[in-house]
Specification:
about 10% helix; six-stranded antiparallel beta sheet; 12 strands; six-stranded mixed beta sheet; about 260 residues; mainly beta
Length: about 260
């Protein structure tokens, strides 16, 4: 009798992601109905995935520099699949590259490093009504009057490094929803799942931010780890000019539903 084909790990991940997030509506207030046992199974599958499972090899890339560097994206994306429930793909970062501080409105996310190492700075956005809490501090450099409408009170939740041996980094609509991703000592790649996918028509557009310094010293630029939080002030900004994301084909096993 012929042997049955082994299901690729990425197919199992996609199927479990669909089970975990399908029927889990987006909610800006964090009321996402996700079954804990299904999420645990998805985390277990993601923890096991490696670059070789997706036929991706680590790249010895140097920081973008010179004329060629001006035309080479610091980050590229390999699209794997997308449904109404979730999207999945791989981000590849050149040495020294960063994905600027950004948000995931009403979304859950899972990030699993495939090779290299990345540092993640994760923030929680607090109330948007600045009149509901203490007055904003003075910033250095000072903000223009028109910028105050783009000011966001937040909390620096964590600063941590992840490698291929680490489990996935998780984000929810309320916790760790904003993050900045920096490479550490070389290029890196990570598998990325977002549920539901970005969709500006449904209020899930990507916004970029900058952590501000206060006159008192530091503001939102310091670091804490673990459960300890530090107040931070973020300014919503346009997409930074030195960041853009290119695309390239995904070489791994096809995913189907």
């Amino acid at each position: 009798m012929p042997r049955g084909k082994t299901t690729p790990l990425i197919q199992s991940i996609a199927k479990q992601a669909d089970i975990t997030f399908r029927g889990s509506p987006s909610s800006a207030d964090g009321d996402n109905k996700i079954a804990a046992d299904q999420q645990t199974e998805l985390i277990s599958l993601l923890t096991a995935v490696r670059a070789t499972d997706l036929k991706i090899a680590p790249r010895n890339t140097s920081p973008s520099s010179g004329a060629a560097g001006l035309h080479s994206p610091p980050v590229t994306y390999m699209h794997i699949c997308e449904t109404e429930a979730f999207s999945m793909g791989v981000f590849l970062l050149r040495t020294g590259a960063s994905i600027p501080l950004h948000d995931h409105p009403g979304m859950n996310g899972m990030l699993k490093v495939l090779y290299g190492k990345v540092s993640l700075r994760c923030f929680d956005k607090l109330e948007d009504d600045l009149s509901a809490g203490p007055a904003p501090p003075h910033f250095e450099p000072p903000l223009a009057a028109f910028q105050t409408a783009s000011l966001r009170r937040s909390a620096l939740r964590s600063v941590a490094e992840y490698s291929e041996e680490s489990g996935p980094c998780l984000l929810t609509p309320l916790r760790d929803n904003l993050h900045q991703i920096d490479t550490v000592e070389g290029p890196a790649a990570f598998l990325d799942i977002l549920a539901p996918p970005y969709n500006p028509d449904d209020g899930r557009d990507c916004h970029y931010y900058k952590a501000l310094r206060t006159v008192a010293g530091g503001g939102g630029t310091g670091g804490k780890s673990g459960e300890e939080q530090q107040e931070a002030w973020l300014l919503e900004i346009p997409q930074p000019e030195d960041f853009w994301c290119g695309g390239e084909p995904y070489p791994g096993p096809a995913v189907s539903f």
